[in-house]
Amino acid sequence: MSEPGAKRPDDSNPVEAARDIADVPAVELINTVAVHLLSASAVKCGLADDPEHQMDLDEARKLITALAGLVTAAAPEIGDHHARPLRDGLRSLQLAFREASEFPDAPGAGPGEKFTGSVI
Fold first, then answer.
1. How many domains does the chain have?
2. How many CA atoms lie within 13 Å of 111's alpha carbon, on the beta-carbon side?
3. Which of 8, 9, 35, 59 is at 20 to 30 A from 104, Cα to Cα?
4. pTM given for the model
């Protein structure tokens, strides 16, 4: 992103923020967004420190579906080298969601499965 020691852009200034984001390759942005979705989904599936208070399967479903759409759409653009670990993480989350669900969805009807196919 920026050179070491370079002045950080003022995030409150849209022109500087846009200039900084313009220097970031698309694959890096896609991976960053995907990792944020992966992390948030894991927390909402109850895979974090405090599952009793953090688990929210309704929110997890939304996040996993968004992640599946992003990974599926971006895979041809970012290449298998970048897409494979994202697909693996997505599949793990889909399985964790199924395991955490009191009443699991039918095969192919789980979060993101309209993009990925059934994960069973």
1. 1
2. 27
3. 35
4. 0.83
